[in-house]
Amino acid sequence: MAGGSLLALIDDIASILDDVAAMSKVAAKKTASVLGDDLALNAQQVTGVKADRELPIVWAVAKGSMINKAILVPLALLISAFIPWAITPLLMIGGAYLCYEGFEKIAHKLMPGEHPAEEKPATAEIKNEADAKKHEKDKVKGAVRTDFILSAEIIVISLGIVSSAPFLNQITVMVLIAVIMTIGVYGLVGAIVKIDDAGLYLSKLSGENSMMKGVRAFGRSIVNLAPWLMKALSVVGTVAMFLVGGSIISHGLPFMHSLIEPLTHGHESWVNTLITGATDLVVGLIVGAAVLALVMIGQKMFGKKS
């Protein structure tokens, strides 16, 4: 009897692990697009800091991301269990905030005068160690704040996939996704921000044979391309704010489905993806502009806090 009970227990565990693996695979596929946006946004946050402080900042943001997910996973499970209707409105608030941050960046560059959440002085203007530490702290805070919204979307997407599964499976899948996504994103961010150092190392290798000359040339190419990569990531990160925020808003508004569906009917899947992305971008820009206008009006009416 004992042997039969043990075998039954092992079979149950194997079945649970199989279900968890299958659901984790589906959740990973569904959240892959958010992963790309998360990568671009967080790599963007490290621009403008000293080279020797890049990895410590990435590590600080990664720890903040894990704290975010440690808060979001149990919170999502509680909300899903007791007030499931609140998930969509909360996500839409987060999406609107992402759109606002993205549009504020554009307004800061194009419009004269001060703007809400105006960025701190660039590294070149940092005159002492105290300013440098404050600059880093602001960078980390901004990255963790943005990560919170993207992490919330990842958690909610995962929750939607496992909502009908047993509670233990829900917890296991969501914890797995949270850990894998955090390691994946910030591991890649760390590699991206140090790519110029890798190129510099390769460019200084000794040796006069054709292979080593090619390696040095490759290293120099990396060094030359690294600044352009970071600038591109900065642009991609801002666009990603509108795409992610606009997508959240579009999914939360029922009438948007009836507007988008005729546009995507009868096209190839890649065309539908482009149409949906363009729609999300436009929605994100409109929402970002509207929220920024409301914030600026509110500041003028009630006075900007010092």
UniProtKB/TrEMBL annotation:
The chain crosses the membrane at residues 71-100, 148-167, 173-193, 228-250, 270-297. Keywords: Membrane, Transmembrane, Transmembrane helix. It comes from the Bacteria. This is DUF808 domain-containing protein. It comes from Rahnella perminowiae.
